[in-house]
C-alpha cells in the first residue's frame, strides 16, 4: 500500500469539520491519515468523537499561558506524532508567528467566507448586510496574518431572500464538510507526489 501523509487536526469545539476529515480518511484511496487530534480545550466535544474512532488525542488548556508558550506545547505533541501537515478545524485561537513559520506551507484552515472577503468573525451576517448574492467557504494555507494565506479551494452557496446568519451558516457548513476533506486530500497527494522519484 502506498504511504499516506500524516495529518494532525487542531480543534477547539465540536469538530464537525474534523469529523468529515476523519470520515474521508476511511476510504482506502485517501492520500492522508489522521494521526492526532489536538485541542486547546480539554472539554472539546470533538476529542471524544476522535477518541471513539481510535485516533490519538492531545489536549491542554491554553488559559493562563502565553501564546508562544502554549504553541510550543502543541508543536511538541504534533512532532511527537510525526505529523506532516496540520488541518485547523474550528481551532479558535490565533497561532504565534513562530509556530506558523515552523510549519510554513503545511497548515490548512477552513474559513466560512469567500476569501479575501470577510476575514475574521461574523462572516455570514456581514455577507447578508452587504447584499451579496453568494457566500461560501475557503480552504487556505495559513500565514501569520489572519485568514490571509493563498486559497487552495472554495465552494459557493447562494444567499437566499430571507436568509439569516444561522440559515446561511447551515448551508455553508454542508459545503465545508464536502470541501475540506477534498482540499486536504489534494494537498496531501501533491506532497506525496513531490516526494516520489520521477
TrEMBL record:
Active site, renumbered: 111 (proton donor)
Binding site for N(1)-(5-phospho-beta-D-ribosyl)glycinamide: 15-17
A single MF term (Gene Ontology): phosphoribosylglycinamide formyltransferase activity
Domain Formyl transferase N-terminal per the UniProt entry, residue ranges: 6-184
Gene3D superfamilies recorded: Formyl transferase, N-terminal domain
UniProt-annotated site: Raises pKa of active site His, residues: 147
Residues involved in (6R)-10-formyltetrahydrofolate binding: 67, 92-95, 109
A Pfam family this chain is assigned to: Formyl_trans_N
Entry EC no(s): 2.1.2.2
UniProt keyword annotations, A-Z: Purine biosynthesis, Transferase
Annotated pathway: Purine metabolism; IMP biosynthesis via de novo pathway; N(2)-formyl-N(1)-(5-phospho-D-ribosyl)glycinamide from N(1)-(5-phospho-D-ribosyl)glycinamide (10-formyl THF route): step 1/1
Reactions it catalyzes: N(1)-(5-phospho-beta-D-ribosyl)glycinamide + (6R)-10-formyltetrahydrofolate = N(2)-formyl-N(1)-(5-phospho-beta-D-ribosyl)glycinamide + (6S)-5,6,7,8-tetrahydrofolate + H(+)
UniProt superkingdom: Bacteria
Enzyme class: transferase
Family to which the UniProt record says this protein belongs: Belongs to the GART family.
Function: Catalyzes the transfer of a formyl group from 10-formyltetrahydrofolate to 5-phospho-ribosyl-glycinamide (GAR), producing 5-phospho-ribosyl-N-formylglycinamide (FGAR) and tetrahydrofolate.
HAMAP family, A to Z: PurN
Name of the molecule in the record: Phosphoribosylglycinamide formyltransferase
Organism: Sphingosinicella xenopeptidilytica
Amino acid at each position: 500500500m502506498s504511504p499516506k501523509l500524516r495529518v494532525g487536526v487542531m480543534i477547539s469545539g465540536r469538530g464537525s469539520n474534523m469529523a468529515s476529515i476523519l470520515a474521508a480518511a476511511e476510504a482506502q484511496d485517501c492520500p492522508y491519515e489522521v494521526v492526532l487530534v489536538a485541542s486547546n480545550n480539554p472539554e472539546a466535544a470533538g476529542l471524544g468523537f476522535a477518541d471513539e474512532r481510535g485516533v490519538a488525542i492531545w489536549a491542554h488548556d491554553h488559559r493562563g499561558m502565553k501564546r508562544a508558550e502554549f504553541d510550543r506545547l502543541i508543536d511538541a505533541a504534533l512532532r511527537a506524532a510525526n505529523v506532516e501537515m496540520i488541518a485547523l478545524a474550528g481551532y479558535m485561537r490565533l497561532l504565534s508567528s513562530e509556530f506558523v513559520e515552523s510549519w510554513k506551507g503545511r497548515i490548512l484552515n477552513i474559513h466560512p467566507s469567500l476569501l479575501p472577503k470577510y476575514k475574521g468573525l461574523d462572516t455570514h451576517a456581514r455577507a447578508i448586510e452587504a447584499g451579496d448574492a453568494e457566500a461560501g467557504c475557503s480552504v487556505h494555507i495559513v500565514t501569520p496574518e489572519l485568514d490571509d494565506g493563498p486559497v487552495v479551494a472554495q465552494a459557493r452557496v447562494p444567499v437566499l431572500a430571507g436568509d439569516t446568519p444561522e440559515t446561511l451558516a447551515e448551508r455553508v457548513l454542508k459545503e465545508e464538510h464536502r470541501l475540506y476533506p477534498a482540499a486536504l486530500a489534494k494537498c496531501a497527494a501533491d506532497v506525496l507526489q513531490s516526494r516520489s522519484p520521477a
